[in-house]
Amino acid sequence: MSPTARLCSSKVESFDTVTFTSRRFRPILPEDCQVNPGRYGAELAYWLCGKLAEANFVTSYPNYEDWGWFLDYTTGSGEEFRLCCGNVDGGDDEWMCFLEPLSKGFFKGKADPALASGLMAALDQILQSTSEISNIEWSKEAK
């Protein structure tokens, strides 16, 4: 395993939230077209959907909730996750993505985040290799 792959693997096992800065994903539609006032992320979610597919991680098309956007992802073994993304605190150049393990059913607990390590490593690689993205910081939980 390459040093970069080892770093991504250890980062993904320990961290499930990434924040970064970019003007690339600023909303193109007016405020009244957004999910909620000050809640952006459609441009980021659609971009990530395409980039992850290019990296052989097929997700759903983007969906939204009142807090932001998400991509559904299912592992080969059937574990389900949401890769959630949106802007940070009403800004239009600070972004956050985080992994949300979904429930396996009543009383069965949630999917193990380690099972999505490949997805998160791909996310890290995509962000790191995009020149319009800076200040990438990984953490254990949403800030």
Which structural class best describes the helix and strand composition?
alpha+beta
Low-confidence stretches: 1-14
Assign an overall shape: globular
What is the gyration radius calculated from CA atoms?
Answer: 15 Å
- Work out the helicity level: 25-40%
Total count of strands? 6
The largest β sheet comes out as: 6 strands, antiparallel
Strand order of the largest sheet: 2-3-4-5-1-6
What does the average pLDDT come to?
87
Q: Roughly what fraction of the amino acids lie in strands?
A: 25-35%
Description:
- The protein has helices at residues 3-14, 42-54, 117-128; strands spanning 17-21, 63-65, 68-74, 80-87, 94-101, 134-139.
- It is an alpha+beta fold.
- A six-stranded antiparallel beta sheet has the order 2-3-4-5-1-6, covered by helices on one side.
- Helix 1 (3-14) crosses helix 3 (117-128).
- The longest helix has 13 residues, at 42-54.
- 29% of the residues are buried.
Short summary of the structure?
Helix content is 26%, strand content 26%. The protein is an alpha+beta fold and 143 residues long.
